[in-house]
Design brief:
single chain, about 425 residues, Spore Coat Polysaccharide Biosynthesis Protein SpsA, Chain A, 9-stranded mixed beta sheet, 25 strands, about 20% helix
Length: about 425
């Protein structure tokens, strides 16, 4: 007797233009998160913690660092039959084009998945921060007899205009899918009823709607049928095409969920991890977020003043003042430096004495933060060299201004990967 399998597909194929310049030399799933992780670690860990270990990651831009990370982090023994495979866009005799959208990416790779008609396919995003029991998601899908189940986040009605919103009956069946409704008259019919409100912790009178999280569970037969055409996107085309002819259900998720699609959301989601009780809990021993083991020493704090700081391993902090900062691996912050609301992604290597001598010869700062430097409201990409007495802030800098070392968007200043910022550089107005 055939036993249905669960296959997980993580979407990571977009250019990630809204995360530029963090995605200039890496794909979006490979961007660092919380100092010690990559964005892709979150959906992969959700799959593994739910007991699903056959995972495909679909990418097409700047995949080298993601390949290295996954190869180092996710190694399964031959008895488990588990894997995390990266499927990058490829030219074939039948097709030479890049992925044209989420549905097209799955279509171009579906022959790799070996899906049976009764198998279950879980499709996840590669740039969201959340922790979900995918097993409960799949079990509801199977028990309801649905052809497709959509993960749905309950949001107050006034906040849903930027999302795809579903009209859901009290039995959980999706009847309509409305893309980014703006008029109150369009939103009011989408407000959920009393039965569905029981799945939400908020007991107030606030009207709620259900928005699509871009996470789906398909029955194998239906997925293959849905992709037997030229449609390119799940949310805009595939799902509306299935309404009325297939049973579509909603799986209500009431936990923390952040779509990390912009520099601002990336910066805010990271800094939220420094809260006394952060909305996303990395300290969950039963449902850990996995990453690769680096065998780095603990970060050394020689002296300093730190408040609400998340420190990763392998760094050195010397007489610095840090407030609300996320400090990545191998970060060096030197004497007198002051950082506020800063996400520092760290470095790929430790510098040694010969490197210091070479830096002096070349007239460039050492990797890390120089003495007396002040940085505010910023993201510092990996391997940046910030000299002594530098002053950096986005305040007063024109939106989307960019040069070889800096970029500003959404009120956040980004110091680019490998940037060299000479001593005494002043940019923006430091408070």
């Amino acid at each position: 007797m055939y036993s249905p399998k669960v296959k997980c597909v993580i979407m990571g194929g977009g250019r990630g233009t809204r995360l530029h310049p963090l995605t200039h030399s890496r794909c979006k799933p490979a961007v660092a998160l919380g100092g010690s992780y990559r964005l892709v670690d979150v959906p992969i860990s959700n799959c593994l913690n739910s007991g699903f270990n056959q995972i495909y990651v679909l990418t097409q831009f700047n995949t080298a660092s993601l390949h290295r990370h996954i190869q180092q982090a996710y190694r399964f023994d031959r008895f488990s039959k588990g894997f995390v495979d990266i499927l990058a866009a490829e030219q074939t005799m039948e097709k030479e084009a890049w992925y044209q959208g989420t549905a097209d990416a799955v279509r171009q790779n579906i022959h790799h998945f070996h899906i049976g008609d009764e198998d279950i396919v879980v499709i996840l995003s590669g740039d969201q921060l959340f922790r979900m029991d995918l097993r409960a998601f799949v079990e509801q899908h199977t028990a309801s007899g649905a052809d497709l189940t959509i993960a749905a986040k309950a949001m107050p009605a006034p906040q849903v205009s930027a999302f795809g919103v579903m009209h859901v009956k009290d039995n959980g069946e999706v009847m309509e899918f409305v893309e980014k409704p703006t008029d109150a008259s369009d939103i009011q019919p989408l407000v959920i009823g009393r039965n569905l409100r029981a799945a939400i912790k908020d007991a107030s009178d606030t009207p709620y709607c259900l928005v699509s999280m871009g996470i789906y569970v398909f029955t194998g037969r239906v997925l293959k049928q849905a992709l037997a055409n030229s449609m390119t996107d799940f949310g805009k085309e595939i799902i509306p095409s299935l309404l009325g002819s297939h049973k579509i259900s909603a799986f209500i998720f009431d936990g923390y969920w952040e779509d990390i699609g912009t520099l601002r959301s990336f910066w805010e989601a990271n800094l939220a991890l420094t809260d006394p009780l952060p909305p996303f809990n990395f300290f969950d021993d039963e449902h850990p977020i996995y990453s690769h083991t680096r065998n780095l020493p603990p970060t050394k704090l020689n002296k300093g003043s730190l408040e609400r700081v998340a420190l990763s391993e392998g760094g050195v902090i010397s007489e610095a003042t840090l407030y609300r900062c996320v400090i990545g691996i191998r970060s060096v912050v030197r004497e007198g430096a002051c950082m506020r609301n800063v996400v520092m992604l760290g470095a790929d290597f430790h510098e040694e004495e010969k490197d210091f001598e070479e830096n002096v010869r070349l007239g460039r700062p050492h990797v890390g933060i120089g003495r007396g430097a002040i940085l505010q409201n910023a993201i510092i990409d990996k391997n940046a060299r910030i000299g002594d007495n530098v002053r950096l802030s986005p305040q007063g800098v024109e939106e989307k201004w960019e040069d070889s070392s800096f970029f500003k968007r959404d009120g956040v200043l980004v110091i680019k990967k490998g940037a060299i910022v000479p001593a005494g550089t002043v940019l923006g107005q430091v408070e």
